[in-house]
Design a protein that fits this description.
The protein is mainly α. The chain is 62% helix and 1% strand. Helix 7 packs parallel to helix 9.
Amino acid sequence: MSTTEEFRRNSDNFCYRHPDRQSFVLCQRCLRTVCPDCRTPAAVGVICPECLAQQRASETPAQKKAQRRWSRSRPVAVVASGRPTATLAIIAITGLAYIIGLIPGVGGLLTNAMEFYPPYLVPQFGPIEPWRLFTAALVHSGFFHLGLNMLALWFLGRNLEPLLGRWRFVVLYVLGALGGSVAVALLAPTTAVVGASGAIFALFGALLVIGRHIGADIRVIAILIGINFAWPFVVAFVTSLATGNFIAALNNVGVSWQAHLGGLVVGALVGLIYARTRLARQRSVQIGLLVVLTVALFALLAIPALVYY
């Protein structure tokens, strides 16, 4: 392809370390042009050698130690392009479910078919419908509910997915949704729920645990988790000052803290499994532990069936 003289004179079109190599990729930190030989994949985009050196120089001793420990083995997985494809796919599928739900005469039917209601898992109430444990994460009570969850998914997914890899990220998200539903069945057996909050809190939990293992500063993550988890309780407390009934106020908030708790715990467990089974030779152990966790979650569903109904 021929280029103009003006193009050739513009150094921004060439690697700053190799002026003879044309490139259009920028370092995410200093925004200088870098060629394939001069760039290192980062969580988002790439980073040039100088910025990489500065980043390593600014790490605390604990971070350096954790990074050495993490890099001695093959990482959990790396998405070559850094593009959070699975995250975008989940957002697209969930958004599509919401759009379909806006069709007159369809929205109510869709919600009724996909929401999670614990008695649907008990045989004496009719045919069991186990898919609701997962499909509840695809339907939401409104645009605001959907928007908040998908915004959180985007911010968390674009950091976690490149670190874990697409399929491990999907497994984390699905198990988080399952964990949220199981917690609802255990703690609120007569409550119908919709939304991806359980799966979102699973991402929070995994990010907290994995961040701790790689030496990252997890204080901000912990604060965000605390604020999000405490929010319905704060609202209920303020409301109960006028009504005098905290439990009733908490039930009327419309936020399933049970799903949040279940997703958070399951996400932390999955994150711990990923962090402790990073070696390639531990892949079968990692899969085995994930299977055991899944079976344990399904086994917990026997408790509400035996105790509450």
